[in-house]
User: Fold this.
Amino acid sequence: MTRYFYDKRVREIFWQAALLLGLVATVVVIVRNASQNMVNAGMASGFDFLWRTSGIDVPFVLTSYTPDSNILALLWVGVVNTLVISFVSVVAATLLGFVIGVARLSANRLLSGLAGAFIEFVRNIPLLFFVLFWYFGVIAALPGPRQSIGIFSIAYLNNRGLTIPVPTEGSAFRIAAAVVLVGLIAQAAIAFWAKRRRDATGQIFPVWASGLALLAALPALAFGIAATVSPWDVPALRGFNFRGGFVLVPEFVALFAALTTYTAGFIAEIVRGGIQSVVKGQWEAAYALGLRPNRALNLVVIPQALRVMIPPLTSQYLNVLKNSSFGAAIAFPELVSVFVGSALTNTGQAIEIIAITLAIYLAIGLAVSGFMNWYNAKTALVTR
Amino acid sequence: MTTLRRGALVAAFALVAGSAGAQQLIPSPTLDAIRARGHLECGVHLGLPGFSFANDKGEWTGLDVDYCRALAAAVLGDANKVRYTPTSVQQRWPVLQSGQVDVLSRNTTITYSRNATLGVNFQGINFYEGQTFIVRTASGAKKPTDLENASICVAAGSTEERMAADYFRERNLKVSIINFQKNDDAIAAYDAGRCDSYTAGVGALAGQRIKLRNPGEHTIMTELISNDPQGPVTRWGDERWQAIVRWVLNGMIAAEHLGVTSKNVDEMRTNSRNAEIRRLLGADGNFGAMLGLDNAWMFNAIKQVGNYSESYERTVGKGSPLGLERGSNQLWTRGGLLFTPPFQ
Assistant:
């Protein structure tokens, strides 16, 4: 019997099982205690409220939600809006951050100085200030509905947002989207083939040319055709504002601008650090092989820099996801705003709602970091 | 009989006599906690002129604040022994439920679902409010149905948020409702031009209008779309404390009805021959002691804060920048809705 105590494996399993059991027991005690206390205090509990009619009007909806839908549908509106704002902000912040990070290293004094000033400015200001600055800046800069800036008399920009026409019938657009997807796959296949051929023969295939055709010209054509054959709901001024079409609310624009510029400052520093982590000898070796500076950067330095950049980039992307909750400060209907804001006070079920919100952020966050870890493993140094 | 035995007998007799003499009260943990800490914890609005607003000297003023002061005067004998916890629309329930505040006096509409699911009780009505809209006068909108396609700023989680959505949906009018986390953010966005209108109760709008850059350019609609009775809120349990909260409010209304003011309260207590006034002010009977308070409880409240009318006129009525009429908040004897059960 005692020999099991000296078996390292058995001991490890024992302690891990004990820890797990303790953790589960703690959670069970907390949940039971909380629900009992809530019953005693006369507070409603349980998850039935999710199927209640929400009755809340949301100004920016990408799903089929209406105030007659249930609270679960309201939650889904929040999740979708959070994902959308996070995704577009991550993409834009990465692009802007790369440009600024590379500019920071430019030999041009003015360019690197401006990039440096931007980074220092952005990194030393709280995000909430940024969000409010952009929000009231956006509203102040735009005219009222009656003085709207018309764009070809189909789209209108004012301080209630950008009102754009939407097709009332979407089948042509679904076909166009499928065409774009096919183009995307074709381009990926070409890129894969071109890399194989380059590795084998050293010949370079102009991937950018096929990319231009498949990823820009083809979608433009497909959507162009879809747009001409579809019936449109064109916005028209009626009462206080435009009626019809889809409204891109200023809250979205302000939050997008704030998250993008703010995160770009941090990403720029990560990019700079990544590039500088590649030893000078690599540049010189690339030049010695006859590569021009652009190619040296793209083919030699950036692939090696990525390895250093990806782990900190992951945390920046997760920050964007979490920072999107600042939308609550400016009434952008993301997860915190609609669910923890409106739904919580309407139902009063704080514990359930906070738990659901935490679980959702955790799930999205883990998915993002899972993807980034996979990508990191792919770009990591393969030692032979 | 030894001295010891005699002593024990006397003690036992004293105990029996004592418990029979003093009225036995059900324990009130809230009241005990207030006495132990020496001040009342009162949840108020973040800042709404006329109701709960910290002035430039940092002193809280307003109708809801006056109620807290009256309650503190009744319980502790000093209207200044109150600590205010400013709460947002969302924070108000947790601070009350968790016991952080003893009472919530914060422009909170009494609704069925709040009473049924939040574990809170509404202890009476200190303000009959009705929801309406504020618009820029230049917009020409006169009534709520003129607001078609308008953007309306509102505080998320308020009764106004759902009421406005229901109102326009029922009439098949499309509006865009923008939900802010705080009343102040919503009113700031309205002022910045993000919205055509901001919606809240008439009294709240009168208070919020003062905060706008050019209050004169805005009009508050007269047509109401809801009835929003508001008053002090307590959590479930501790019935004695709930009764105290309820009857201090009743006492302020009764004082107005009986003509007792902060000016004449001393004279009334000594000279009045009206039985209800004498009971209310502790000149006769032991009304304070029945709930475990000093018999001068309402005397202190009225002397230090005033009756309902004095409080109303000073904070939201004609003596204030809000300049509201009494309207529904008038005594039942003068055509209003304000009512109190008798002090008998």
In short: Residues 1 and 109 of chain B are 68 Å apart (CA to CA). Chain B touches chain A through 49 residues (CB under 8 Å). DSSP finds 14 helices and 14 strands in chain B. The longest helix of chain B spans residues 239-258.
